[in-house]
From TrEMBL:
This is Tetratricopeptide repeat. Keywords: Membrane, TPR repeat, Transmembrane, Transmembrane helix. The keyword Transmembrane applies. Residues 1-11 have a biased composition (Basic residues). TPR repeats lie at residues 102-135, 230-263. Residues 1-26, 83-105 are annotated as: Disordered. It comes from the Bacteria. Pfam families: TPR_14 (PF13428), TPR_9 (PF13371). InterPro entries: TPR-like_helical_dom_sf, TPR_rpt. The chain crosses the membrane at residues 47-67. Residues 15-26, 84-93 have a biased composition (Low complexity). PROSITE patterns: TPR (PS50005).
Amino acid sequence: MARHGKSGTKRPKADAPVAAPRPARGATAPAIEDTMFFPRLRRHARWMFVFLALVFAVGFVAFGVGAGGTGIGDLFRGRGGSSGAPSLSSARSATEKRPNDAQAWRDYSTALQTDGRTDEAIRALRRYVALKPRDADGLRELAGLYLAQAAEKQSAAQRLQFQAVYSGAAQSYPGLVASDGRPIIEDRIGAALNAQASTAINEAVGEARTAYADAVSTYRRITALQPNDPNVQLELAQAAQQAGDARTAIGAYEKFLELAPDDPSAAIVKQQLAQLRQQAAGGGASGSGG
């Protein structure tokens, strides 16, 4: 989706450019679990799990996931030479020597992002924002990191669900039940695995929702600093949709149209507004107005 033009040069940010508005979600918090297809697949195509297991195993080995070693992905990331950014160790050392140096914390966050450590990068960038609370660019980068974190947690929840099914989820035995409906054969090990996996999955899903909400909160801070920037309103609306906050998304989309009525994105935004308003009228909007 095209974005409203902006002037000036900005510091490169870790988050990707804002994409076209996503299909509208419900007015309540997003049902992240609904995106997980493994339970449905398990019922209809059990053979597919063997294929998926091989794909996951090869991918994990090739890219060094969970092995504590060096994979192909590490070799690829190691190529391309230095980007001129400080190393992780030197950036960390700078924050220890100058804890009140905002730029040192931002450099440290950048180094952590380069190393793929999103959670730690967020903590470092939050320190930068605390020292530079009116830096819209820093806030924008932080919001993007929250969205990246949400995507990582959602992906982790899906991976955990797959692992639970593949590693021995409890099996049911149709017909092998007593007269009172209780199963004659109980898969206690499988049931224990299910319970353990369910806890881990719910935790990952909760963390994803929290990250989406943090992104919305951060974009709100940017709109307070730049109330007439239509791009910020568009980013807030999209983040709010991902968080399931229909009311905030509606308000931000409306503000975007007010600021940029002739923008090429206006037609798509109007479609999103119509869907969100219909959902809000049908089930009630969540979140607070922006």
